[in-house]
């Protein structure tokens, strides 16, 4: 026979207490009955050879070849080695290795493996009962050599034993629910349902209990059914209309170690008609013009109702009033306002105000809440009619008058009369519409309304005249110019502030105020402060009294007239207009000598008297002053003397000046305007007219024998210029008519020493040159003059 051992030699990881208990519960029956089973053929009960021998003798039956029992495997095994499931053994197997065990069916080789020699069955993968609860397998013992069965193939089941590895879940969460407000205690709100994927037939892994984690003390939940109920009576929607609950479902009947899941339940309190309408005021006042058209809206009033929807719908009606038939009220279905309409024309002169009593009532009243009523409210409405300037009204709309055609001009025909229907009763002025009297046959007196003829009438030409008379109110129009803030505030008066020398710090020496030509509606408000750098001065400070005045106070004492007789304080004044304007006013403070009562005796500067100086010292100072005056007069007199200057001009000037020579000469044709040869031989050619009566001893940079003085041409260029300037300086120094002030003289003097020599046409005539200038004749008519001057012609001829 084949014996099955389950759970023997378990080498997996340590099991949890619950898992160990479950495993022992499964193995204990198997251990007791050992390898008992039913013979497939006979159905007799048979026992394994390993069982008790005494029992075996008593229960003697035909022995079957296979003994089977259900296999059980715990799910979610997490060990590192394969999980031992059980052992197969056949009586045919003598332990000589001739029998081989073969396993087939669901999960064979992929999940379950069998040792072909020993028959040990192992699970190689972690099993999940929620994915597959059991596996059906076939076992067979075959000859190892021939592969022929030595035992018939039989089928057995491996059941996956459940553990608590799934928490409860709410498939329909989160929940939305509603319950009427003011519901009694215990009113059902909603039922929540949690499911657990664990085996409900084994243990408490799938037995769920409910609890409320958030939502106390307003709601409760039944632990077994998940029904949520109200835990407080009379919850008011107008106070709070929504609650969010957190419900927990926990398996293992809520015991420690159980798994849990949560869901949220949003409970909304639905409205019921538990609030009556209420007017915000007991009296309302409205004003309308008497010219308001019929069927126009006079006013809108509304009674507040804390309910919503149909529970806030209401009807309005006029209960009584002193203007029957004048007004009507209806309900605006969109806003639930009462709309007061005008049914008849208004006349201010007839009735200037109306009083109405209006009631608002709920349409849909819930009988369960009548105790909270009454569900209506009343208010008073006063409608004031405002006067409108109405046109004058004629006493007779159509007047018929008769006049003879021979009536003289100015004859009175009749009189029209009109009055002002308004209470003002303004005077009336009359006039004729000239479109109805184009030929001006008639006149009307503007004040009395008397109609008279203006021209002779002819009945045969026109027997009937149809005139239109205008009646116009005479009103006095008063135009008021509104003020804007366009004037800055200034001192109210010209202040004369006196400061005693014996004043103490913090003493008020002046109180100032301001005026403004503007007239603001809210009155003037001025702000005072010291302007600019005076704000930080060490002598005075300003205190704004916040009443459009300010006080000037001293910061120190010890003021002295001798040091500073007058102080000037710039005071900034700002008004409160929009935009604000400001001005800076100067306050003069005079230091005075005062008596013990603070009365000023003398003010202003004090004459300084020198002390400690003798009469001789004063006379010496006076003599010095006189001497200085005499010297100044002499200098002025000398400067006024008129002498011939070195440089002659038509207009003389005693100031420093620059003399400029701007004479260009006559060009190529002018050979006598300026002779450069003369300039180059200054040491030979002298002007006999120049005065040489005074010759100062002026040193030169180069000393030459007095017998002979070299010409300028023989000197180096830098010496030529230097000597030239010294010669001119000596001439100016010895000139008695030279001006007594500095002057600048320009000398047109060229040096010598250029490699190209002088480029002047004047100089070129006085030098010998072998250069041929015939090519100038080929340059065109513009250079013809130069070609004639510098061509082959003799230079002496040109100079002549």
TrEMBL record:
Record-level GO cellular component terms: adherens junction; catenin complex
Pfam families: CADH_Y-type_LIR (PF01049), Cadherin (PF00028)
Top-rank taxon: Eukaryota
GO biological process, one term: cell morphogenesis
Membrane topology listed for this record: Single-pass type I membrane protein
MF GO annotations: beta-catenin binding; cadherin binding; calcium ion binding
InterPro entries associated with the record: Cadherin, Cadherin-like_dom, Cadherin-like_sf, Cadherin_CS, Cadherin_Y-type_LIR, Catenin-bd_sf
Name of the molecule in the record: Cadherin 7
Taxonomic source organism: Oreochromis niloticus (Nile tilapia)
